[in-house]
Every structure is written in C-alpha cells, then in structure tokens.
UniProtKB/TrEMBL annotation:
Gene3D superfamilies from the UniProt entry: NADP-dependent oxidoreductase domain
CDD domains assigned to the protein according to its UniProt record, in alphabetical order: AKR_AKR1-5-like
Source taxon at top rank: Eukaryota
Pfam families (alphabetical): Aldo_ket_red
InterPro entries, alphabetized: AKR, Aldo/ket_reductase_CS, NAD(P)_OxRdtase_dom_sf, NADP_OxRdtase_dom
Domain NADP-dependent oxidoreductase, first and last residues per copy: 61-370
Species of the source: Aureococcus anophagefferens
Protein name in UniProt: Aldo-keto reductase
Length: 401
C-alpha cells in the first residue's frame, strides 16, 4: 500500500474538486481529486467537509430528522447525535418546518450547548421553507423557524418544490407551534398553493430568500427537490445547496455534474433508500416500479420482497468486501461522490455506526459495483405535487425529465 495521506479540506472550483492533503511527514499541499482516483495504491481518507460557494464548510455527514416526531424521544435522539454519534465539527442537523420537530430540536441544541457538549459554532443547522410560506412570507417564516429552533441564525435555508393546483396533502399539513437564526435555509419544494400557475412565482420567493441571506438570518440559502432547469431559472444569487434524493438506485449523475459546474453542493436525502415511503406517502414507490420492470429477474427477488435498498444483494456484497455494514457502504458511496448525506435513525448504536464512515473509503471496484445498480428509480417521486389542472400535470413536468 502507498503512503497514507489525510484530506484536510475540499473545494469545488467549477467542475473541478481540489483537495488539501497532509502526508505522514506533515507535508501539506493542494491537489486534484482526480490524481488520487488515478492512484488507487495511495490511500486517501474521505474528507469530512466540503466548501460551499459562500466559503463556509458543510459537514458531509448530517443527521436527518424527517418522520421523527416533535416529542421527548426525538429530543433525546438529537442529543445522542450531537453528543456521541456525530463527532465531526461542525455537527450537521437537518430539519424543516414541515417536519413539526423544530421546537424539540431547538430544545436539544440549547441543552447540549448549556451542558458543554457543543458550541453554536460547532453546529451546522439546516431548516426549510414550507410551500405555504413563499413570496412575501419568507422572512417571517424564517424568523418563526429560528424562534422554534432557539437560534440566532441557520447555516442553510433551502427553497423547496414548485406549486401545484392540488391542495397540500394532509400528510404534509404543518403542525408547528412555536429569534435566533438557522445557518442554512432551503426552499423545501417548487410547490406553492392550489391553482394552474405558481403563485407567488418562484422568482419572487428566491428574491426573498436572498434577502434572508443578506440579513444574516441564514448563512447560506439553497433549494430542495429542484431540477437543474428550475435552478437555472432563478436569478441573482446562486443557490449554495441542492438537496435531492440520491443513492445507488437514483445516482443523479447528470445532476451532480451540472451542480459541480455551477458551484452548487448536493445534499443527498434518503441515502439509504426509503423503504417506508410507500406507506407514508400513500404510493407504491420504488418497489412498485421495480416490480413492474424486473418481475422476472431472480437476482432482484430479495429486493422485490420489500423494496429495501439496505437488503439489496449487491449492497450486501460490497459491504462484505469493504468490511462494513450495508448502511455504512451506502453512506460511503454518497460522501465519496462529494455529497453530504442525511441518514436518519432513532437508535444510539446506529447513529454511532452511521458516523463511522470516513477512515476506510470504498475501493474503486466497490464504488463501481454500486454505480451499476438498476433500475434507476425514486422512492419519493413527489406524486403529491402533480395535478391535471396544476402547473405540473405529470411527474415528467415536475422533474423536467
């Protein structure tokens, strides 16, 4: 095996990734990521952060909180993630107004800071703008999220899915109650309110998101569930982050390349798949599509039984080869492609397991094996944003595919 080097920092320069490395003798220097990819005999630890187009670092390992309720158990889980499982600095926590758990996450953060487990500067907090708060409501919505989170700013705030003429589904109905700021603020979806057009238009909402960034309420703003076409339609400030579903069964290669060329970091939600999304979102999801396309394929039989990426035979094979768990293999796949990943767990041991993914990267062969999984399909297809009288009449309209 060649000399070991540690990656201290990564930066995206257009479509090129540059890495600052330190050799065993203490020598440091910048180089191209492609240099290391061409030299598999050189073992390179996976970087723990990426640099956003704002100049700030985002941890590649995050803690997702979708479907975690706003109760005492969730508060304890977030404390576990801060204290034990997510030792990277800063620690990355992802929430949203729609998740109805900002308040308990804020309590967990406040208690962790008071106990000396972490400082505010060691946290990277993302929350998201919900569909009913677009346009002129953006600043007030951000301040309300900050109040619930008990923060002075967020690290990232993303804009989310476009509008539809169908009512907001009951499963997404906000149940939030509850001025300090999130670091990151995202538009959750390109989705607004009932009607044939997007009202208010996404351009208006993005201008308001830019104001939130300029006011310092969010240290970065971005988007979620947007296509590159929708990203390119936004004027002015380039989004710092695009958050989308991404895993070996939805590799999003063209989107990754397009975001790199635009200086936009990609965050992968559902990096382990989302086997329970069919029941939660009331659709057949990926399992139904796989069943239709591969009903006669024996090698996919185990996957077909539950639609679970974690139980895919090829994922298990890579995990055995890499000496890690299937979940760790899937998370390594995401971060080694330069994405931040948002696994979710309510179990302390699994939270700690998910954090242990950086010191032993997957081999090029294992990465290639996961990169061959088929069919490419979504677990979360956003059917709820499609309506015959809305701006998105088909999923192809929504995703611009």
């Amino acid at each position: 095996m060649g000399a070991e080097v540690a990656v201290l920092e990564t930066r995206m320069l257009g479509a090129k990734e540059r890495v600052l490395v330190e050799a065993e003798d203490g020598t440091k220097g910048w180089g191209s990521r492609s240099v290391f990819e061409r030299c598999p005999e050189t073992r390179v630890a996976t970087p723990r952060t990426a640099i956003l187009n704002t100049g700030r670092a985002i941890p590649l390992l995050g803690f997702g909180t979708w479907k975690l309720p706003g109760d005492a158990k969730t508060k304890a889980v977030v404390r576990d993630a801060i204290r034990a499982g997510y030792r990277a600095r800063p620690r990355h926590i992802d929430t949203a107004r729609m998740y109805s758990n900002e308040a308990v996450i804020g309590e967990a953060i406040a208690e962790a800071v008071a106990a000396g487990d972490v400082t505010r500067d060691e946290l990277f907090v993302t929350t998201k703008l919900w569909n009913s708060d677009h346009g002129s409501k953006v600043e007030a919505a951000c301040r309300a999220s900050l109040a619930r989170l008990k923060l002075d700013y967020v690290d990232l705030w993303p804009l989310g899915v476009d509008g539809s003429s169908s009512p907001i589904p009951a499963v997404f109905a906000p149940r939030c109650t509850g001025t300090r700021a999130p670091r990151r603020y995202l538009v959750h979806c390109p989705f607004t309110a009932p009607g044939p057009t997007l009202e208010p238009p996404l351009g208006d909402t993005w201008r308001e998101m830019t104001k939130v960034y300029e006011l310092g309420l969010a240290r970065a703003v971005g988007v979620s569930n947007f296509s590159l076409k929708k990203v390119d339609a936004l004027e002015g400030l380039v989004p710092a982050v695009l958050q989308v579903e991404l895993h070996p069964l939805l590799r999003q290669t063209a989107l990754l390349e397009g975001c790199a060329a635009r200086g936009i970091h990609v965050t992968a939600y559902s990096p382990l798949g989302s086997a329970d999304s069919a029941a939660f979102m009331k659709h057949d999801g990926a399992c139904g599509r796989v069943r239709a396309r591969f009903a006669s394929a024996i090698r996919h039989r185990e996957y077909l039984l539950g639609g679970k990426l974690l139980e895919h035979a090829d994922v298990a094979k890579v995990a055995r080869s890499a000496g890690c768990t299937p979940a760790q293999a899937l998370l390594k796949y995401g971060v080694q492609r330069g994405c931040s990943v948002l696994p979710k767990s309510s179990t302390a041991s699994r939270i700690a397991e998910n954090a242990d993914i950086f010191d032993a990267p997957l081999s090029p062969g294992d990465m290639e094996a996961l990169g061959r999984l088929e069919p490419q399909t979504r677990f979360l297809h956003m059917q709820t944003c499609v309506h015959p009288k809305g701006p998105y009449k088909t999923l192809a309209d929504f995703w611009d595919e």
